[in-house]
Q: What sequence folds into this?
């Protein structure tokens, strides 16, 4: 994979996701959010934007965030995104490289790896 497969003038949308806690015997406490990735070629920078979609059943308060990290392309043709506290390692998929499938893990706990797919936006 080369850096040319990364589209720099568009965002990659992640799925709608949730952070949920079942409190005291089954009370729902959580919020729904959506993430996007945007790559900047000049600085090898990647911005992970988290937008809160709904927190009407959340006891706390969450805010939209922009996490700034760096990206590189490995010799194994993987894209590696590094943020403070977590890393993402992915591969471009699809006929036109319109998907990036990532494995994501927290730096201090690599046993809690999860996967997420980002899709190149149409606009």
A:
């Amino acid at each position: 994979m080369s850096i040319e497969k990364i589209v720099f003038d568009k965002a990659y949308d992640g799925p709608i996701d949730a952070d949920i806690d079942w409190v005291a015997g089954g009370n729902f406490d959580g919020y729904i959010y959506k993430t996007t990735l945007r790559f900047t070629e000049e600085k090898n920078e990647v911005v992970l934007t988290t937008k809160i979609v709904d927190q009407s059943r959340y006891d706390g308060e969450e805010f939209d965030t922009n996490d700034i990290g760096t990206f590189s392309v490995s010799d194994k043709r993987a894209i590696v995104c590094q943020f403070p506290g977590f890393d993402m390692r992915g591969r471009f998929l699809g006929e036109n490289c319109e998907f990036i499938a990532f494995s994501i893990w927290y730096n201090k706990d690599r046993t809690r790896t999860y996967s997420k797919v980002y899709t190149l936006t149409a606009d």
Observations:
- The beta strands are 12-23, 27-40, 45-54, 65-73, 79-83, 86-93, 99-106, 109-120.
- Residues 21 and 29 are 5 Å apart (CA to CA).
